[in-house]
Amino acid sequence: MKKERPVTSEEKKEPEAACCSPEPSCAPSPEPVAEDCCLPDPGLAPGCCRMTAEGVSVHYGRKKVIEDVSLAMAPGRITAIIGPSGCGKSTFLSTLNRMSDLVPGCAVTGDVRLEGESIFAPGTDLIALRRRIGMIFQKPNPFPLSIRRNIHLPLREAGTRDRETLDGITERVLRSVGLWDEVSDRLDSSAHALSGGQQQRLCIARAVALDPDVLLFDEPCSALDPISSAVVEELIASLRRQYTVVIVTHNMAQARRIAESVAVFWVQGGTGRLIEQGDLEEVFEGTTNPIVQDYIRGGRG
Q: Of all helices (H) and strands (E), which one includes residue 293?
């Protein structure tokens, strides 16, 4: 709003991005901000952030699995990582919250930044990091506990002890994944008694309970029947405005339905590489790379 008074030098300063440390191409300037800039959509929920991979390579012993992958994962958008089996998609995903540290002989070079800060910085608290960057796996993996304790346990480990607070968060996150009405009368029953789709939604609720910044999905629907898969897919799509979402999928139709950005991995010279990335429609409809064209159309992979 214009004001009828002199503008001070302090007021002339460019505002800083509220959500992430901008890349050089997104640095504040008097020019209009490009549509593909890393600055978040002002309609996003507060706290959404951005993750970038910069020249990431991964070795298992002497075997180089992926090489020199650089990828920006923006808030408010679902980034789908696609490509044939064995091209390093899941390996790359595991580096984003340092789950790769748990693999004997795994070595990662390059960098991954969350809100501009390296996740490989000395002294990084890995438990805190993995609370901020949650992961949901291909096969649902609820704890062998009750539904209620599946949510309570990670919250207790994070320091929440008050029972009323724990129950309040449990109800909130179960409602957020569409499970509350299905399980509210049996919260103390085993989580393993749930269907596969319900178990996967419980795992998503468990991750969301810790209030993460980023959610990583490693083929979350591949072990589910079509109906359960559709429910989980719709849930993932609904999370985009609260979290930075990255999903590995072999399902081209699923990528089309829910993703805005896509990264295509391929094996070249025996090593997984990122061969194309961009807006989904631009890649799916406008790519000139013959490998990507054939893969998307089902001719390769």
A: helix 290-296
Give 170-226 as a DSSP string: HHHHHHHTT-HHHHTT-TTSBGGGS-HHHHHHHHHHHHHHT--SEEEEESTTTTS-H
Measure Cα distances from 245 to 73, 214, 217, 257, 265 in Å. Answer: 8, 6, 8, 14, 18
What span, in angstroms and rounded, lies between the C-alpha atoms of 139 and 214?
A: 19
Which DSSP helix (H) or strand (E) runs through 266? strand 261-268
List the structure tokens of 260.
Answer: 């805005």
**220 pLDDT more than 60:** yes
**CB-based contacts of 43: which residues, under 8 Å, 6+ apart?**
76, 241
**Residue 300: its pLDDT value, please?**
59
pLDDT confidence bin for 149, thresholds 50/70/90 = very high
**Which of the two residues, 18 and 87, has the higher pLDDT score?**
87
Q: Which of 74, 67, 137, 48 is nearest to 107 (CA)?
A: 67
Beta pairing partners, 134: 215
Alpha-carbon distance values, 56 to 14, 25, 26, 96, 108 (Å): 32, 20, 21, 10, 7
The pTM for the full model equals 0.82
- Spatial neighbors of 195 by CB under 8 A, at least 6 apart, are 228
Contacts of 152 (CB under 8 A, 6+ apart): 166, 170
Phi and psi torsions of 130, nearest 5°: -75, -15
User: What are phi and psi for residue 276, nearest 5 degrees?
Assistant: -160, 145
**Contact 220/200 with Cβ under 8 angstroms?**
yes
Q: Are strands 51-60 and 106-114 parallel, antiparallel or unpaired?
A: antiparallel
- In whole angstroms, what is the distance from residue 277 CA to residue 61 CA? 28
